[in-house]
Amino acid sequence: MIGFVAYAHNTWKGDTKPNRVTWVLWTVAPLIAFFAQISEGVGIGALLSLAIGVGPLLVLAASFANKKSYWQVSRSDLICGAVSILALILWFITGTGIVAIVLSMVADFMASVPTLIKAYRNPETESSTAFLAGIIATIITIFSLSRWNFASVGFPVYLLLNGTALFVFIRFPKLRPVHQHLQRSKP
């Protein structure tokens, strides 16, 4: 939550420009994973999913508090959002805990794509603090689990991989290959 609070603060100041499609869906998908993990008996390990769902809500609120912190939504953002919502609807139809966790991961990843692209193209519009804190929290969660099955480790391992990619894109932009067709002018 410390990382989310820092990211929300940077957003409120206008230093960070979150993609609202990503952050809305980053609120919804982990909360669904949280309830699915609870239904599968994961226990305290599910608290990570709860925090990963509540934190983005703070960022989203901050993006509305400061209009210059808003990142323009593109057509590809909306397509990723639609696929993410479709995954959530499919989970609702199946109602199975494991299916919910998988589809929440799909939904969360599709919600991440706009921010992954933005972090890759314009890392200066992002803040790595929240993602580093998320990596640390996820590692702590994984090592604190008493049951090692897909229901308990699936979502945390996905979060670790996704958060690491975002952190690297933002914090170490010189490590990524630069392709002219991916570069855009700054908004």
Structure in words:
With 187 residues, the chain is mainly alpha-helical. The chain has one domain (2-173). Helices cover 72% and strands 0% of the residues. The chain contains seven helices and no strands. The chain has helices spanning 2-13, 20-39, 47-65, 75-94, 97-121, 129-144, 150-171. The chain is globular and about 40 Å long. The chain starts with a helix and ends in a 16-residue tail after the last helix. The mean pLDDT is 81.
- Secondary structure tally: strands: 0
Q: How many whole angstroms does the radius of gyration measure?
A: 16 Å
Beta-strand content estimate:
under 5%
How many alpha or pi helices?
A: 7
Q: Specify the structural class.
A: mainly alpha
Percent in helix: over 70%
Structurally, the number of domains stands at 1
The mean pLDDT is: 81
Q: Which sheet architecture does the biggest sheet show? A: none
Shape: globular
Q: Uncertain runs with pLDDT below 50, 5 residues or more? A: none
N to C succession of SSEs:
HHHHHHH
User: What distance lies between the first and last C-alpha atoms, to the nearest angstrom?
Assistant: 29 Å
